[in-house]
């Protein structure tokens, strides 16, 4: 069954439906669907073990995020499909985060997600520990004889150093994939979408992800840490944060390396890998400056 066939097979439609592919996704196949009564987004995708994506976890996180006022409502689900309310708005770009008001709104939304989503979670859920993810990606790449395999010894050495430098962590419920396109602006407020990688984690991973994925300046990073923690960052916090930021950038690069092997989506993963490796190397250099 094709993804579009899966959309048409869902038992929720009223009247004739019109389904259009929703661009921007680089993990799942998504559609905007209009029937006689409503407009919705349909996310088509099964579990993806190589990325530690388990759909029961995405569903639980999506429901809790809606209950917390962070994300649109889940309207229906079945194996391989998740239907959520359509939000009229636009996805953000990295350039949007250069505007102080947008950055502050995003930081406020992420802090609310960290604080409030656990109040509404039901059932089992996952932990997202980036250093485990990086080691698992390395094993996947080795097993597949990826052309990136020669990089792995150095990257794993870096992974161990960054994990040691992170030190003790606070535990929150993280989104763990804060690409700019996972923020929606409806003209009044921001929404956070796509909970594929959600799980308990350090807040520094999401904060580092915002910075790495959106090219924040050191001044913006200091502002973000000050805003989130309500105090100026001291040297230990900077060290832990920069370790997590580098790990976040490395995870995005190694995620893309795995996608080069496993994904059938029409996307230039090789170029995405190269871009994120450069982001990682810049973040690693900033981390090493704190040593």
Quick description:
The protein has two domains: 83 residues, 2-Layer Sandwich (Phosphorylase Kinase, domain 1), CATH 3.30.200; 199 residues, Aminoglycoside phosphotransferase (APH), C-terminal lobe (Aminoglycoside 3'-phosphotransferase, Chain: A, domain 2). The chain contains nine helices and ten strands.
Which key terms come to mind for this protein?
291 residues, alpha+beta, Phosphorylase Kinase, domain 1, Aminoglycoside 3'-phosphotransferase, Chain: A, domain 2, 2 domains, five-stranded antiparallel sheet, three-stranded antiparallel sheet, 10 strands, ethanolamine kinase activity, Kinase-like_dom_sf, Choline kinase
From the N-terminal CA to the C-terminal CA, the straight-line distance is 53 Å
Give the radius of gyration. Answer: 19 Å
Instruction: Estimate the global geometry from the Cα principal axes.
Output: globular
* Count of runs of 4 or more consecutive helical residues: 9
The percentage helix is 40-55%
In the CATH scheme, the class of the largest domain would be Alpha Beta
Total beta strand runs: 10
Give the averaged pLDDT, no decimals: 96
What share of the residues does DSSP label as strand, in percent? 5-15%
Order of helix and strand elements from N to C terminus: HEEEHEEEHHHEEEEHHHH
Number of domains: 2
Protein name: Choline kinase
GO molecular function, one term: ethanolamine kinase activity
Keywords: Kinase, Transferase
Organism: Paragemmobacter aquarius
